Amino acid sequence: MAHGSNSRRQRWARQRSGESASGRTGSTAAPPVFFDATGKRWRRIVATLVLLICLVVGAVAWILPQAMAQTGEQPLNQDAAYPQELLATGDVEDIPVLGDEDGFAFSRIGLIEELDGHTVLADPFSDEVFRTLTAEEIATVGDSPYALEHFGAPAAGQLLLTFDDGPDAEYTAQILDVLADEGVPATFFTIGTNVAANSELFQRAIAEGHAIGNHTMTHTTSETDTLRNRQELISTDREMRAVGGYASSLFRIPEADADNNPLALLQAQQLGYLHVNFDVDTMDWSYAPGEEVPVPELDGAGHIMLLHDGGGDRTATVAALQQLITEAKAAGYTFTTVDSIAPEQYQSTTDVEPVLADEATAVTVAGISVAPGVVMSWLFWFGIISLTVMSVLYVVLALVGHHRQKRRVWQVVPEEELPLVSVILPVFNEEPVVARTLASLQASDYPNLEVIAVDDGSTDNTLAILEEVASSWPALTVISQANAGKSVASNHGIMAASGEIVVTLDGDTIFEPQTVRMLARHFYDSAGSRPVGAVAGHIKVGNRRGLLTMWQSLEYISGICVTRVAEGVVGAISIVPGACAAWRKEALVAAGGYSHDTLAEDADLTMTLQKLGWAVVQENRAVAWTEAPVTVKGLAKQRLRWTYGNLQALWKHAGMLFRPKYGTLGMVALPYTMLATVVPLVFLPLTVLMAVLNLAAGNWVPIAAFAAFVAGLHTVICVIAIRMVGESWIHLLVVPVYRVIYEPLRAYLLYASVLQALKGRMIGWYKPARTNTVLDLSTLQDGSTRVGHP
To answer: What is the distance between the alpha carbons of residues 119 and 143, in angstroms, rounded to a whole number?
Structure first.
């Protein structure tokens, strides 16, 4: 198998010849991924966004007045303020109520006027006179300018079943089944948002001959908010027209108490709706599942009965409905809908052609009330399933990999035959820590070693320290170059390397004595079918002085280490950390060395090697201790560079995604990384908003359950990871707050990285201020289970 093409070798040669003494590349170097030297990209993006916003605002400004307009026009008094103005002329707390005990089906408010010597009840919104008042009613009215009237009733022996608060996906369907089996028509007073969520049930009710009424969009009316009350009715009306081609003038106020909500009643009249009452309340909503809803006594008179098909668990209603119908039929009752007893002008229409305003309302309602719930449900189960599956998969694979490493018998090679290892140490302003880094390399138990330190134009005493150590340690070679960046310095060192194995580390990294040997053995004792091109070591946090650094330590152990061991089993490692890694020199030459066009040059190089067919493995016994940022600001800056660089590398190697030739890396690992980036990026604002709304509404149980599940799963992973690498159990104390730190940090990093990518800017190379607080190696115990605290 060829592990490098001629073109790559030629590119490497060009880089070598194009490098100056300082390590800078020639003019053929590729520009950084996402970089936009012209600055035009961001201006185009902003201009496009502004144009889109203008188009949306223009469309809304055009459609919104149409959507808010009432669907039917009354002849008189159509100003939205009229109902409040009329009610203000009388005593709204003591409105005269007219009608007799036989008139209960409908409610309306009428004007008290004198006409041809008679006192009449007149329609406020037309020239229609409802009727002449009796002497007794005139006395009841007194000097009130208006009165509330109850009128109309079903005939004797008629039973009108009405169901409020649906349609509901579970209970409306069951109720429709019972009604269909019994051949009984009913009237459903539907909530607009439920119509949007369960449109097929709404359409089924219409198709099966049931009548539909308006029960507002969100089961809400206000005693003072004119606009809210109007739109609750109008938007529900338009929703029904759009979803089912159905227009209804029947209306029932939420809680069905029209007498105590005259504003909503009068506004409904103004819009052309007729309020429907009831005289038999089953109180079915008050019975728990399993309890029996008593069947009301039927006296032979006509009745309108109130039941519910939504708004909660309606198991008791469904159970009582069959008995109710059976007993009513036995008593000689027939069933009909409210439509059949309503005045002619309020009859429903079933063949309405929706207009643009209707469709726009339906889309808006679905987008606001339905889509978020559907998306959140999808995200919830996607999160649960993907997190569980991938976590279990990674843990199982990590255990397999750990078991294989423990059982593997390594070839014994005489020390004099061990290949030369070249350790490359690029440094920039590492004065506080570089001496300890070099001391750890001097303590290495690998006998055939050269160290090449490349000073990248340090402005402190780093170079002097390097030269002082080199004067007494022949294995150390010091190269000085003008400041050109880590990748250039690394390549400079690689070019000077004589060994066939190259080990890289950072200026603040402290190797344990066995680390180089553990890394190197994979190259001269390869067990796989493919030659090993790179080996990832196990990096640990050495300055565990507080919650933030302990959190990073746990992340290195439970996230990075376990993930990499698991990926190594299936050949899917995508990042070999430059802070503790070994590379085959041949593979580096084939890949063209470290690239300069991403900030995650180690991830970029790793994926390049995978493309070229080299094997990449993990070695947990190759331990390196690093100094983690000790401040939130420092951590954020470091991780921003990591995240941005990894996005660059993923974008650069996007051609590997879903490509079977790249095995598990191309088919699973990289696609999962992409999903883990895109899904939060797109849906995180919605997730946060829905979480806040649920918490505000007191619906905290699902959120707590999800958090507990994630914490529990993470605890299991942490226990396995800590046991696997022989770390301190004190890390488990961080688990309860792990996500509290992780989730806000991840959100910031994702959005900040994408914003910088869109702007075409480069994120600078951030290096935390060195504190030289990595633990003292002299306190460690032997082997890879070394654990200590500074």
So the answer is: 12
Residue 37 DSSP class: T
Q: What is the pLDDT of residue 4?
A: 39
- The CB density around residue 290, as the number of other CB atoms within 10 Å, is 8
Dihedral (CA of 134, 136, 139, 141) sign:
negative
Residues pairing with 304 in the sheet:
160
Residue type, 94: D
**How far is CA 446 from its chain centroid?**
49
* 108 phi/psi in degrees, rounded to 5: -160, 160
Helix axes 601-611, 486-496, angle to 10 degrees: 50
In sequence order, what are the beta bridge partners of 666?
Answer: none
DSSP annotation of 570 reads: T
Name residue 147's beta-bridge partners.
110
Angle between helices 40-68 and 735-759 (to 10 degrees): 110
The count of other CB atoms within 10 Å of the CB of residue 575 is 24
* DSSP state letter for 284: G
Q: Which of 599, 592, 432 is nearest to 508 (CA)?
A: 432
Say how far apart CA 45 and CA 49 lie, in whole Å. 6
Q: What are the angstrom distances between the C-alpha of 542 and each of 4, 75, 497, 576, 770?
A: 38, 82, 29, 19, 12
Band (pLDDT 50/70/90 cuts) for residue 251 is very high
Q: Which residues of 222-251 are buried (b: 16+ CB within 10 A; e: fewer)?
A: eeeebebbbbbbbbbbbbbbbbbbbbbbbb
Nearest of 205, 197, 213, 210 to residue 164 by alpha carbon: 213
Residue 44 CB contacts under 8 Å (≥ 6 apart), including other chains: none
Cα angle for residues 752, 753, 758 (degrees, 5° grid):
100
d(CA 357, CA 64): 8
Task: Put residue 272 in one of left, alpha, beta given phi > 0 → left and psi -120 to 50 → alpha.
Answer: left
Instruction: Give the CA dihedral 198, 204, 209, 215, nearest 10 degrees.
Output: 0
Which residues belong to the active site? 164, 308
Cα distance between residue 32 and residue 231, in whole Å: 53
Residue from 30, 26, 5 nearest 16 by CA: 26
Contact 573, 528 (CB under 8 A): no
Tens digits of residue pLDDT in 505-531: 999 999 999 999 999 999 988 776 789
- What does the pLDDT read at residue 788? 33
Q: Which segments of 697-775 does DSSP mark as H helices, in order? A: 701-725, 735-759
The DSSP 8-state label assigned to residue 169 in this structure reads: T
Cα of 176 vs its chain's centroid, Å: 36
**Distance from C-alpha of 109 to C-alpha of 232, rounded to nearest angstrom:** 20
- pLDDT value at residue 562: 85
352-400 pLDDT, tens digit each: 999 999 999 999 999 999 998 888 888 888 888 998 999 999 999 999 9
Residue type (1 letter), 233: L
Cα-flanking dihedrals φ and ψ of residue 541, to 5°?
-80, 125
Cβ atoms of residues 297 and 260 within 8 Å:
no
Supply the pLDDT for residue 776.
Answer: 52
Q: Which tokens belong to 193?
A: 């948002």
